[in-house]
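does this look right to u?? aspartic acid version
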Amino acid sequence: MIVAKFGGTSLATAERFCHAANLIRQDPNRRYVVVSAPGKRDDSDIKITDQLLRYSETGDDADIGCVEARFREIAEELEIGLDISKEFDEIRHASHRREYLASRGEYFSAKLMAAYLDFQFVDAADWVKFRMDGSVDQESSYACLRRQAVGRGLVTPGFYGLMPDGQIHTFSRGGSDITGSLAAAALNAKVYENWTDVSGFLMADPRIVQDPQPIRHLTYHEMYALSCAGATVLHEDSVGPVSRAGIATNIRNTNRPDHPGTMITSTAVKREN
Ligand code: ASP
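got this back:
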């Protein structure tokens, strides 16, 4: 069984959404799905999460209107018969904390993907449990997810969870990777697939070296060091849950699904000659 997490660029438009759904359908082992909020469609675009954060500061109806329009466009183009307007009206008419608003990108992304795939939607607020100090209570989170993972497949939003006082709390930016890692550990996945827009960790910085090759294998130790040194492929805090559970992480490229990507394991893999 595979937990597959899709990043924002892989979900930026209806077409990308559909492509991600096809990848999920291609392998029946991909039963548990974690999604980010839709990212930028092009260089001049704004990520849904950034637009929500802007709305939390400005309260400008144009900002929340743009977010709603993007989700509506995805729903309409893919003919997902899900009415999101009531929930957006509720967001407009109540005053919400910044973290709650920031989390809505992942929330709606997961709602749409679950409806599109005909998978069960499990809200991250119903299983990712934070302690008051902001750390994740893994034991109770894992137990909550296991209890709810009963169907053929499920989709859950990345990036956020619930504090003991009932408030939504978000991880740091890029934190959907952490949710994916927690879900993989909770459900004892064989592999945690992290689908993004590169074919894994590269052998050199592409801004300096032309066309560097992706690294085939890394250990979690090496990956953590690379992430702390500035490689932005995977959130460094996503290492803990999967590495402790002995689960491999496979970075994959949605634009080149046939490429094996980078496989990250606890121990080094012998090099094939
Ligand atoms: N949407 C959040 C961000 O932009 C979290 C994520 O994508 O992992 O940082």
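The chain has a mean pLDDT of 94. idk if thats expected tbh
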